[in-house]
Amino acid sequence: MPILFLGYIAIYIDKLVIGVIAVPLAEQLHLSIDEKSYIFSAFFIGYSIMQIPFGYLNDKLGSKFVLIISLSIITVASIVFGSASTLIALIAARFFAGIGPGYPTSSARTVTDTYPMEKRTWAQSILISTSGIASIVGPLLIPIVIGAFGWRGAVFCIAFLFVLALILVIWKLPNTHKEKKQSNQPKVKPAMPFWKVVTNPVVVLLFIAMCSINIVLYTIANWTPTYLADERGVSLGMISIIVAIAGLGSLLGSFGTAYIVGRFFQHREKRVIFVLALITAGSALLVYQSESIAVLTFWLFLCYMCSVMIFSTMFTLPLKRLHESIVGTATGVVNTGATLGGVFAPMIVAQLVGAFGNYQAVFVAIAVAALVTCLFVVFIPNMKTIQKA
């Protein structure tokens, strides 16, 4: 678990602080809001393309192999991004950085191989809690690094974290796939072929729901710094504090999922998501309406915390409701939906800001996306229904 934990922190710092790094990057290279959206979207396009293949490889070759390949690719891509000076090079580097992270699907496979059913929500939520840690540590440290070494230095520091994670995975992570093959246990046949996995009702509904909740998450994570700088006139130092406080909400949300959902709402996740989606939508609207920065920060904190709880709760559903032989493939499909949310979010922001000239419509879109998430989760079959199928 500690090995996966470090890699997850590196992945999330890379994804979440790009919004902070983009502020000085855009100033130095004179990038428009549309050009910044291309950089953000490129990462998630690459990310989306590789989730299903990585999920399949996890089931066939094991999670350790995929983790090594993933970390190797994103390390090289980060170094290239930190060295780039043109928009095309930046977009290409982020695209290949997106191809790298097979981490979520590989970690889900490792959790399934390592933990019994009743502990999988706890284990997966602990891993996802790294998004909260990254949301606090990253925004607080990255501006300091940028001040000392520039935005390129900040990118190279993140690349160094990937190198450390790669070394630990190679050195310390057990090869559970190899151990299973060498054991005397009978070989488990896949519960269903690939086409049945991608058309499974649970997988399809989670695909759509994860896309919509990630529109919420990545709009908040990547565009809050730009909104605060451009429309509110907030300094980079203050932005880092606001984003870090919102990150605390992400951390509490992840741990809250591990404790509250894992302990009190096993198999009743839909009720939790319904309530959290309503709170997320309401707090998103109040972020923009708040005149005080302190009040804005509170609603941003609440919005981020509840949306992360929704994400964490949904991400555990394939681990608990699908046959373990297809968990890697199914998680890859679901995570493709999640990454498509990261693709659409920058496009939505650029179009809405271009059309209305401010971010009010953006926060309305966040609220709508939260409610769409809730709508599709309602139709996921209950646990008893799935067990009878």
Descriptive report:
It is a single chain. The chain is mainly alpha-helical. The relative contact order is 0.16. It is built from 17 helices and no strands. The protein has helices spanning 2-16, 18-29, 33-61, 63-83, 87-99, 103-114, 120-128, 130-172, 176-182, 194-199, 201-230, 236-264, 269-289, 293-321, 327-356, 360-378, 383-388. The radius of gyration is 20 Å and the shape is globular. The protein has one domain (2-388): Up-down Bundle (Growth Hormone, Chain: A), CATH 1.20.1250.20.
Concise summary:
By secondary structure, the chain is mainly α. It has helices spanning 2-16, 18-29, 33-61, 63-83, 87-99, 103-114, 120-128, 130-172, 176-182, 194-199, 201-230, 236-264, 269-289, 293-321, 327-356, 360-378, 383-388.
Keywords:
single chain; 389 residues; mainly alpha; Growth Hormone, Chain: A; disordered C terminus; MFS; MFS_trans_sf; MFS_dom; membrane
SSE arrangement:
Layout (H helix, E strand, L loop, with lengths): L1 H15 L1 H12 L3 H29 L1 H21 L3 H13 L3 H12 L5 H9 L1 H43 L3 H7 L11 H6 L1 H30 L5 H29 L4 H21 L3 H29 L5 H30 L3 H19 L4 H6 L1
Helix pairs in contact: 1-8, 2-8, 2-11, 3-4, 3-5, 3-15, 4-5, 4-6, 4-8, 6-7, 6-15, 7-12, 7-14, 8-12, 11-12, 11-14, 11-15, 11-16, 12-14, 13-14, 13-16, 15-16
Keywords: Membrane, Transmembrane, Transmembrane helix, Transport
Protein name: Major facilitator superfamily (MFS) profile domain-containing protein
Main location: membrane
